Description:
Chain A is an alpha+beta fold and 405 residues long. Chain A is built from 15 helices and 10 strands.
Amino acid sequence: MKKTIGKPVLAVGPFHPLQEEIEFFQLTIDGEIVTDIDVRISYNHRGIEKISETLQYDQVPFLVSRICGICSASHPLAYVQAVEEMADITPPDRAMYIRTIINELERIHSHLLWVGLGGHFIGYDTVFMWAWKYREPVLELLEEITGNRNNYGNVKVGGCREDIKDEIIPRMLKELETVERKTDMLTNAILDDPVLHARLKGVGILTREDAIKCAVTGPTARGSGVDIDVRRDDPYAAYSDLDWKVIVQPEGDVFAKAVVRLLETFEAIKIIRQALNKLPGGPIAVEVKDIPAGEAVGHVEAPRGETFHYVRGDGGNTPVRHKVRAPSYVNVPSFAASCIGQSISDVTLTLASVDPCYSCTERIAVIDSDNKIVCDYNMLVKLSREKTQRIKEESGLEGITLKEE
Amino acid sequence: MSYEALKSKLDQISDKLTGIDVKSDKRIFLNCDADNALAVNKFIFEDIGARFCIETGIDCDDRFEIIYHYSYDQTGCIINVKASIFDRDDPRIDSLTPVVSAAEWIEREIHDILGINFNGHPRMERLILADDWPEGVYPMRKDSVKQ
Lengths: 405, 147
């Protein structure tokens, strides 16, 4: 880490049992303003790339789905697409549609999870409870199709493992309608709330130029006006057959990223609905024989951005090199551009707006120059919530009210 | 820029390349020597305007390879620049970080796991390995596996 002797330091991380990516943020502060940020990763390096070289091609999807519990559909799909490209395999149409449906269900539950945690950080615990409540039926649908709420293990080289049975399609469509209605209510409540406008607009801005320089992807890039989406730019699965649009907001602040994620949830519902209605018949996988020597890349638009896999084989039954780049690997360093100049009460929110994994901010401590902890995570969340409260009092507004119809 | 325009633009740097492997309209692999890697990368990032995805470091027994992956999102084309480093005793290559700041972490990671030095990297410190990991042991090198 950078030497910061004599300067007040804010330490964020590194360990918490809930964290999926263990990270450590060291913020140098001047009064309440962040003047520098340093990040240290890999406290829990699992050596996935190395383990992958010891597994057979069809075992690797189970390994890479465990890179991230929430993106457990995107990683295997990116890997499988790379291997299919290497071996020139085209999966059947039905498998392409099933892949699309699973990946979009994943996007819905990931974005709703983000909305909930964002609400928690600023003191809107009702948003947290409701967003997670509406996320639950989506996980149940995933469980019904694949047998698991996470780590679906559904995608394989050449197709899919589990089919979507015809009898559950009407139920899925009904559930989607409910999720859409609830998300619509939540979205209107959030986007119309003047307190949230005051609290989130202009906070943690990542400019378009910085977004391009930091090579960020996904909602972090689209919230800064960078119009990229792998699903449209390099279509895979069944995305090119379906009608949907890429959501882009130019502002680059936390509010813009929230808008992108909320509106993307509706696009995801739209995609799934079309895919279910157009679901072609036929087999869900083709037979795969040997994987020839070669190299290929596969990339997928995960909820947090582009998941990138590079696979090289020598004609044997295991990859000789398998490189994985998760979206947070490029999104997290953009904190240097978005956090500097912010006040401490906005740091948790700015870090969370990238959706690195909320629990990354669960362990925060403000340390003075004698390394005494003067302020912990709870204190920082309190600071963030107090700011919301202040805005409410100054404006005389109550904040959002959610009503179940 | 269409695929044809992209390909004709790549011809401008053909003297710096040792080979072009066009697998499809959307997958291009460019080969070059370590000495020319920075110039080629600079061209792809600044002149073509491709988005930097990541770098991959590979130990190929007789040499090291660094593959720079870019995505040209307008046509969905992935451009891979493959630079070979033949000196196994002192492997080094010019750092891309001064041109593309997003390369900072991955070059530190490749230095950790393969022991490749990136000339001109602003902060060549440990990123992936633990603080008590011994110096000079590189876990992704083929010859270090059995240690």
